[in-house]
Amino acid sequence: MKIRLLLADDHQLVLKGISFFLGLQPDFEIVGEAHNGKEAVELAAELQPDIVLMDLNMPVMDGIEASRLISEQHPNVKVLVLTSFSDRSHIVPALQTGAIGYMLKEVEPDQLVEAIRSAYKGNIQLHPEISNAILSQLSPIAHEPKKLPGKEAINSLTPREIEVLEQLTKGLSNKEIAQALVVAEKTVKTHVSSILSKLNLSDRTQAALFAVQVFHSNG
């Protein structure tokens, strides 16, 4: 079964180059190409790809807004950002849309291929050059002067809370997590509150970034 990809980039040469290379992979299928964020949203609805490879700086509608709309309207479609911007002012909003990951265009082709395959499996993907920076800059993200707890803090959580924590990395709502784990939405809300309390975190964004550190920092 092939991974169905929708590519979104307003630079024609970049788009064609990425399309050509990824199209050579035996397990990939390029199902569409969008030249702006609005087209990306429309094609995501029409084609229902597995992954949208999303540029950020595009006309008509930028990649941030397009990623947000796709994540909200089509939770089964994963958005993997592929951009030239490595600053936190782009990274943080992109991840907060529910995107599965954030890669820079300077990434090695083989690394991009593996990132797509891993994202397809539901794993958060961060470009090697920015992953440590993102994880260490939690306080600016959450407007709190605190750092992420150490990985060993995971030991304070119950097995079910760990399952909920993993779901948070996907940007899912309590309702969506409840559906994924086949539990009541109220139960998920209780687990989320317990996770934040045990880890001494303020919100879901902090919890999701802690989960990235624990589960995916090496992936």
Automatic annotation (TrEMBL):
GO terms for molecular function: DNA binding. This is Response regulator transcription factor. One of its GO terms (biological process) is regulation of DNA-templated transcription. Residues 150-215 form the HTH luxR-type domain. The lineage of its organism: Bacteria, Bacillati, Bacillota, Bacilli, Bacillales. The modification 4-aspartylphosphate is found at residue 55. Residues 4-120 form the Response regulatory domain. PROSITE patterns: HTH_LUXR_1, HTH_LUXR_2, RESPONSE_REGULATORY.
